[in-house]
Amino acid sequence: MKASIVYHSVSGNTRKMAQVIAQAMEAVEGVEARAFSLEEVDEAWVKESACVIVGSPTYYASVSGETKLFLEKLGKYGVAGKLGGAFATANYIHGGGELAMQTILDHMLVCGMLVYSAGGSQGNPVIHLGPEAIGGHLEDAEETFTLYGRRMAQKAKELFKK
Ligand SMILES: Cc1cc2nc3c(=O)[nH]c(=O)nc-3n(C[C@H](O)[C@H](O)[C@H](O)COP(=O)(O)O)c2cc1C
Fold first, then answer.
1. Ligand 1 centroid to 39 CA: how many Å?
2. In this predicted model, what pLDDT tens digit does every residue of 32-53 receive, in sequence order?
3. Range of the domain at 43
4. How do residues 86-140 score in pLDDT, each as one tens digit?
5. The ligand 1 atom nearest the CA atom of 8
6. Is the confidence at residue 16, as pLDDT, over 90?
7. Does residue 131 have its Cβ closer than 6 Å to ligand 1?
8. Is the CB of 9 under 6 A from ligand 1?
């Protein structure tokens, strides 16, 4: 079962966290996960993915313009009915990362995706909209991103593995 993590990253923070998620998803048996920057998305792989996660740096308490442009083309990847998730990086804890994730999830809902994060259903750490990492302290978030990747992969398997 394929999974895609698509991210926008200029200074590398969002890329690093996308890789943490991909690694955690790969560790779940039967899941093949790949992380793609917006500039080099493997369209065929995304189309075949049961789960598509999008990550953005927080710009002005929202997604970056580049991420927004990608989200407006998300429908062309045939994502309706697939599992969707969001993550963000930011400079500040109260810098708007949650709003960036909400924007990603909104676009996924518009495309007919099944959005998921596990929320509080699996105990601590609770991950409500998605995981967020703060630049300069990325390592503090690695465990949560790993857990998030695992939870997303397990849910995708539960829903789509034949
Ligand atoms: C144009 C611009 C706007 C930004 N706006 C915010 C913001 O509103 N809140 C915040 O916490 N960080 C903000 N940041 C910081 C980035 O979200 C943060 O450094 C992010 O981790 C960068 O991701 P990257 O290394 O993947 O490019 C902004 C950065 C830029 C370049």
1. 18
2. 999 999 999 999 999 999 999 9
3. 2-160
4. 999 999 999 999 999 999 999 999 999 999 999 999 999 999 999 999 999 999 9
5. 26
6. yes
7. no
8. yes
Q: How many domains, in total, are found in the chain? A: 1
Within the chain, where are the H helices? 13-26, 43-48, 65-71, 97-110, 138-160
**Residue minimizing CA distance to atom 8 of ligand 1:** 60
CATH code: domain of residue 143: 3.40.50.360
Q: What are phi and psi of 152, to 5 degrees?
A: -65, -45
Please indicate, yes or no, whether the overall pTM of this predicted structure exceeds 0.90.
yes
Is the shortest distance between the CB of 11 and ligand 1 below 6 Å?
yes
Residue 161 Cα distances to 17, 29, 30, 33, 115, angstroms: 26, 11, 9, 14, 17
Q: How many Å lie between the centroid of ligand 1 and the Cα of residue 124?
A: 27
The ligand 1 atom at the shortest distance from the C-alpha of residue 62 is 8
CA dihedral 32, 37, 43, 141 (to 10 degrees): 40
